[in-house]
Amino acid sequence: MHSSAAAMSIEPADEELLDRVAAHDQSAFEAIYLRHSALVYSIALRVVADPGIAQDVAQEVFLRVWRHPALFDVTRGRFVSWLMSVARNRAVDEVRSRGRRRLREVMPAPGADDPADPQAVDPQLAAQLADERGEVRRALDLLPQEQRIAIELAYFGGMTQQEIASVLDTPLGTVKTRVRLAMRKLRISLEHPFDRDPLS
Amino acid sequence: MRCDEVLEAAEAYALGASDAAERDDLERHLEVCATCRDLVERTMLATASLALAAPLRPAPRLLRSRLLRQIELERESPLHTAPLKRLFAGEPGRDDPLRYQVSGTGHTANGRAASRRHWPWAQSLAAAVAVLLFAGCALWIARLQSQMSRLQARSQTLQRITTEFEGQRSALLLLASEGSVRLQMQPMDPSSGVTGAVIWNPDRHKCSILVSGLPAAAADQTYHIWLVGNQRSWDSGELSTSGTGTAERTLDLNTMSSQAGYQVVVSLQQRRSNDGGNWQPVLKAWVGIQ
Question: Is A29 on the interface with B (CB under 8 A)?
């Protein structure tokens, strides 16, 4: 995995912005929001499949960043990795607490027509993540279909292996094997995707 | 849980797909084993990149204004801080996504208002209103739960139908493709009422198997598809049947392209058998050059 060629950025790193957020610097928080809101919203939307609920989830995630910036431990990896985990986990929690499994709305859901925020795009980060997004999708496409379905139902559907086995009418042992094999292949394919500083 | 068992369970845990018992077992082990904790954290960080598979959508403008308004309110008065929802419904614990299944309790901002107004009558009125609201909400929640149960059942049915539809769609597309031929399958027992057909496209190296009238397999048995030719046989996987005895699978036959011809066999066999064991052929069809 190689990052796209880009000029050296003069934008502050996420960690520096977080230090300023801890000092209640709202401009630093807005910078973090503009840089990562599309990613957080997209992850939430993919899981909950409802634009209104996805907005709620994204708001919760960023409020968490505002109120408790110290929750992110820089020794554990990149802020964007942590942020994606928080977004996905919060979205799955929302799905589970509502007791539904990604029901697709037939009619447009509230918030579906909300205009997009044109400023909430970081071109440099978007380019970096586009490369990595392509690699993640290629890695998923290389999986056998049954393994890919199991991973997507678990990761984006928030289902346990038992629930996946029930939905697919497949033995639990088979599902466990598919998940284990798929994750090992993905770990090899996606090893160290965030070792590179996205702003370098 | 032992360390070697953690290796097996780490992937599912990182996905959040462990069942409750396995999750609790693993987390107890992680509390005392730094090596396994490091392994699981690395696995979870690698899993985080899966989020990038989500299609990128710009956040609505409304979200930013809502967020900034909330922050402004909190800066002006801590009273306006709404508690964050628990990260995961379930056990309390640190608010940390790397403690995957351990949820945080609702946090409130520091410095919640120290001053309070002493209006006893207002408090009594508020309490009465709260009780009435609570009763109303409880009834409403009970109705919602009933509706959600019905929706959940319907969703599962739709999921099953969608899966079946996708299988049928693949077969129809292959049938419509240029160069496809239809081959009738022969039942081993003509009186069984089981019928089947193979849609074979030699140019695309694909075939679809469509079967109807299959009796339900016993709990320890399953239907499989085998490709048999040149004194060898290849297991093409399980053939899942619907509740009405129909089944369809579309196979990629690239590995068979060197074979002049082979039998496509639908078999009934023991569920845990890797080599087919005492598999019983149910339907067969010859594919290829006679």
Answer: yes
For A104, list phi and psi in degrees, rounded to 5: -85, 125
In this predicted structure, the answer to whether residue B244 has a pLDDT above a threshold of 50 is yes
Chain-chain contact of A60 with B85 (C-beta, under 8 angstroms):
yes
- At A11 the pLDDT is 76
User: Hey, are the CB atoms on B8 and A180 less than 8 Å from each other?
Assistant: yes
Give the CATH fold of the B120-290 domain: Immunoglobulin-like (2.60.40)
Q: Is the Cβ–Cβ distance between B21 and A165 less than 8 Å?
A: no
Q: What six digits make up the tokens of B84?
A: 């964050």
Per-residue pLDDT of B107-164, as tens digits, reads: 223 333 334 445 567 788 888 888 888 888 888 888 888 888 888 877 777 776 666 6
Work out how many CB contacts closer than 8 A connect A with B.
Answer: 233
Give B120 to chain A, closest Cα distance, Å.
Answer: 33
Mean pLDDT across chain A, nearest whole number? 80
Q: How confident is the model at residue B89 (pLDDT cuts 50, 70, 90)?
A: very low
Which range is most confident: A30-34, B19-23, B155-159, B166-170? A30-34
If DSSP codes are grouped into helix, strand and coil, which group holds residue B271? coil
**DSSP assigned state of B60:** B
Q: Which helix (H) or strand (E) holds B244?
A: none
Q: A55 vs B54: CB contact, 8 Å cut-off? A: no
Please tell me the predicted confidence (pLDDT) of residue B93. 35
- Interchain contact A79–B (C-beta under 8 A): no
Q: Which of residues 38-77 of A touch B (CB under 8 A)?
A: 38-43, 45-47, 51, 55, 58-60, 62-64, 66-68, 71, 76-77
Contacts of A193 in chain B (CB under 8 A): 46, 49
Look at A136-145, A170-179, B164-173, B205-214 and tell me which has the smallest mean pLDDT: B164-173
What are the structural domains of chain A? 11-100 (1.10.1740.10), 125-200 (1.10.10.10)
Three-state DSSP at A10 gives coil
Buried b vs exposed e over B192-226: b needs ≥16 C-beta within 10 Å?
Answer: eebebbbbbbeeeebbbbbbbebeeeeeeebbbbb
Residues 155-184 of A with CB under 8 A from B: 155-156, 158-162, 164, 166-171, 176, 179-180, 183-184
Chain A residues with CB under 8 Å of B219 CB are none
The β-bridge relationship of strands B103-104 and B92-93 is parallel
